[in-house]
Design brief:
By secondary structure, this protein is of the alpha/beta class. Helices cover 45% and strands 15% of the residues. It contains ten helices and eight strands. The strands form two sheets. The protein has a six-stranded parallel β-sheet with strand order 5-4-1-6-7-8, with helices on both faces. Strands 2-3 form a two-stranded antiparallel sheet. The longest helix has 22 residues, at 65-86. The termini are close together.
Length: 210
């Protein structure tokens, strides 16, 4: 059976929001009396793709779990507002590619982000019209693989591929029993993807082959 649905990762696949995410987080962290550090673009790029609790542990591991989540929740909430106003850096050719794909496939997003992050992306660029449904860690609090399975069950998806940029994305696709296309222009390397794209614009042609 040919692919009928495409499920996308967000960061490193559809856009790179690291610079604006870092700016928003740094505003919040700079006001915290118990933290003496700055949040940089490199910090954010280093945690892209992780669940929010894992991000808290990596960035603020010296603090209690409760305090980590307090910070992550506050930063994430402000980040959503910030991105709704400022957006991020789209990969070249993204909208034309989504427009083309949406005529033939059902498009979805599953991400390890907080609630409101995908919505900020869709709101700023007015991309709602291209996607059937989205799901994130903030809604499910389970692994990305489980979230992929949930969105597939909800939308009666029988044959899909996941498009992502890091090994965790590939592992999640394998867990959900679907194919994986590596967005090699993103943040990571992976082992044995089903296909590789070096630009989002290559996706329509690759899908004809997988």
């Amino acid at each position: 059976m040919k692919t009928e649905s495409i499920i996308f990762d967000m960061d490193g696949t559809l856009w790179d929001s690291a610079e604006n995410v870092a700016a928003s987080w740094d505003e919040i962290i700079s006001k915290q009396p118990d933290i003496d550090r700055r949040i940089t673009k490199e910090d954010i790029q280093g945690v892209m793709g992780l669940t929010m609790d894992a991000i808290g542990n990596k960035l603020f591991g010296e603090l209690s779990k409760e305090r980590q989540m307090e910070l992550v929740d506050e930063c994430g909430s402000y980040e959503n507002d910030y991105l709704r106003l400022h957006g991020g850096e789209l990969y070249e050719g993204l909208e034309d590619t989504l427009k083309e794909l949406s005529k033939k496939y059902r498009l979805f997003i599953v991400s390890n982000c907080q609630s409101g992050y995908i919505e900020a992306f869709l709101y700023y660029y007015k991309f709602d019209k291209y996607f059937v449904d989205t799901l994130c860690w903030g809604q499910t609090r389970v692994s990305k693989g489980e979230s992929i399975k949930q969105i597939m069950e909800k939308n009666n998806i029988k044959n899909a591929v996941y498009v992502g940029d890091i090994q965790g994305d590939l592992d999640s696709a394998r867990y959900a029993g679907i194919g994986f296309i590596h967005a090699a222009y993103g943040f990571g390397e992976v082992d044995n993807p089903d296909a590789v794209i070096n630009s989002i614009t290559e996706l329509p042609d690759i899908l004809e082959e997988v």
